[in-house]
Specification:
The protein is mainly alpha-helical. It has twelve helices and no strands. The chain is globular, with a radius of gyration of 19 Å. The protein starts with a helix and ends with a helix.
């Protein structure tokens, strides 16, 4: 069982990641008193897009076609370094937390480059917002992970999360709680969820992530949607890992991790049901607060 555990972890992530947007949408539909779309709608959309052809503008180059491939590949590579609570990730080494953050940054860079390739003013506007907000999110993520490394004494994500025990919670509960809040704000921003962005809007003037992928179609758009679902799973794993104690049996840890990811998706759906998207001028204030919480956690550590 232990020998095949890393493969099982990756298989479960690849299989269940598209389920998370469906859980969020069904939660929002429940609060709105609607039936909502099918829970497996994301799987149907991916299958439909993969069976269609892609349309490319004459103003784009090979960089536009390369963008979705690099986006999906980068998130898949980051997934290989993500710890599953107290379980080891398939790959790990000292300092892999930096590679993890930079792989997610690489996906963002090619999202922005592909958007700029179209020459569209709307996509350029979304790209500028994405770069601005990410410049505020990345320090919060990196400083938060550095604070966790200082508390645990390790510099590998798997070792850091494997050292989270009830005793560590007892001695460093304020630090871990601050990190959970900061990472949750980063989680909402990086995945373009309310209150930072509304993934269901169709008004280009208020869109951030969605406006950057307007010109993608067919398999290219399927890669982007699947990459977004995997990113939702990956960043959520950083939050759930802080709440799961290490030392449990592998099967119990795996089940608890998946249940935690599902409950986190329900929480996102509840948040999107009870509050509206913030004004764009208010979003930087929220992201700066996430960075301040990470800095405070680093000082306490």
């Amino acid at each position: 069982m232990m020998a095949y555990l890393p493969l099982l972890q990756i298989f479960m992530a690849l299989l269940l990641a598209p389920l998370l947007p469906g859980i969020i949408n069904r939660t929002k539909a429940f609060f709105a008193g609607r039936r909502g779309q099918p829970l497996l709608q994301a799987y149907f959309d991916l299958w439909r897009l993969l069976n269609k052809g892609a349309v490319y503008s004459r103003s784009t180059t090979w960089l536009f076609r390369l963008g979705p491939i690099v986006i999906l590949a980068s998130v898949l590579m980051a997934l290989l370094f993500m710890p599953w609570g107290g379980l080891q990730s398939p790959f790990s080494f000292a300092g892999d937390l930096l590679l993890f953050a930079y792989l997610l940054g690489l996906a963002r860079v090619f999202t922005v480059l592909a958007a700029l390739e179209t020459g569209s003013a709307f996509e350029g506007m979304g790209a500028s917002r994405e770069v601005f907000f990410s410049a505020l999110c990345e320090p919060a993520l990196l400083i938060g992970l550095a604070a966790l490394a200082r508390v645990t004494g390790f510099y590998s994500l798997s070792s850091m999360y494997g050292a989270i025990t009830p005793a560590l919670w007892l001695h460093h509960a304020p630090v871990i709680l601050l990190l959970i809040v900061a990472l949750f704000i980063v989680y909402l921003s990086e995945n373009a969820r309310i209150p930072v962005d509304d993934p269901n809007t169709h008004l280009e003037l208020t869109m951030i992530h969605e406006v950057m992928v307007l010109d993608h179609s067919g398999p290219d758009f399927a890669f982007i949607l699947y990459g977004s679902a995997l990113k939702l799973w990956t960043l959520g794993g950083l939050i759930i890992g802080l709440l799961l104690p290490s030392g449990l049996s592998p099967l119990v840890s795996l089940v608890m991790f998946i249940v935690g990811i599902i409950l986190l998706s329900v929480l996102v759906g509840i948040i999107e049901s009870i509050m509206a998207r913030l004004r764009l001028v208010r979003v930087p204030q929220m992201l700066v607060s996430a960075g301040a919480l990470s800095v405070l956690a680093a000082f306490l550590a």
